[in-house]
Structure formats: structure tokens, C-alpha cells
Amino acid sequence: MPDLGKDSAESREDAYDRGHIQGEIAARLAGHDQHFSAINGHLADIAVELRGMKLEVQRLGDSANADRATVVTTASALKDAETARRDKTEQAWTPVQRAFAALAALAALAGIVVTAVTLVRP
To answer: CA-CA distances (angstroms) from residue 33 to 24, 42, 47, 118?
Structure first.
């Protein structure tokens, strides 16, 4: 049997104090476990929120890319329409158009001369 001399013997008060201290430590550890569980729950909620925000940022990026493509397409179409309008208004007359314009001017001049001659003669 082991020798339980005076130095190794534990009094009831020492045993009580040791148990009390161990109980406090166990209670504190249990409190820490609950605290860590709560922290883990909050971290899980934060992770869900971050995933949602990541998807929203991705959607914003996709939308911005689509808007840029639309702007480029619209600008190109407007430029083409302006070029077509300018080409149409600045188009030179063909020789046939010039001939018809000259004939119309001569006919108008002839009409004015005939009218003037008729009005001047009694």
C-alpha cells in the first residue's frame, strides 16, 4: 500500500477547495464552449451573406458589361445612320439630273419671256 503520510494527505477543506476550483474551471470552459458555438453560428451567417453579396456583385459586373456592349452597338448604329444621312444630302448631281435641271430652267425662262412679250404687246 502506498504511504499516505502527513504531506500527502489531503484535508477535507483542501479537497473541497480543489473541487470548487475544478468546478469553476469546468463552468468557465462550458461558457467558452457556448461562446464558441455562438461565434461559429455567426460566422456561418456571415458566410451566407458573403456568398449572396458575391453573387450580387457578379450580377452588377455582368450588367455593366451588357450596358457597355449596348452603348457600343448604339453608338455604331448612330454613326452609320449619320454617315448615311450625310452621304445622301451631300450627294453630287448626276449628268442626267443636271440635264433635266437645265431643261426645266430653260422652260421656265421661255415661259417668262412669252408672258412678258404677251403683256407688253397690246
So the answer is: 14, 14, 21, 121
Instruction: State the sign of the Cα–Cα–Cα–Cα dihedral 76, 80, 82, 83.
Output: positive
Query: In whole angstroms, what is the distance from residue 103 CA to residue 97 CA?
Result: 10
Q: Quick one: cell of 45?
A: 451567417
Q: How far lies 64's CA from each of 27, 59, 61, 73, 90, in Å?
A: 55, 9, 5, 14, 38
Question: What's the pLDDT score for residue 20?
Answer: 79
Q: What is the pTM of this model?
A: 0.40
Phi, psi of 121 (to 5 degrees): -80, 135
Indicate the helix (H) or strand (E) that contains 95. helix 95-120
What nine digits make up the cell of 96?
442626267
Show the cell assigned to 5: 503520510
Grid cell listed for 56:
450580387
Which parts of the chain have pLDDT scores under 50? Answer: 1-5
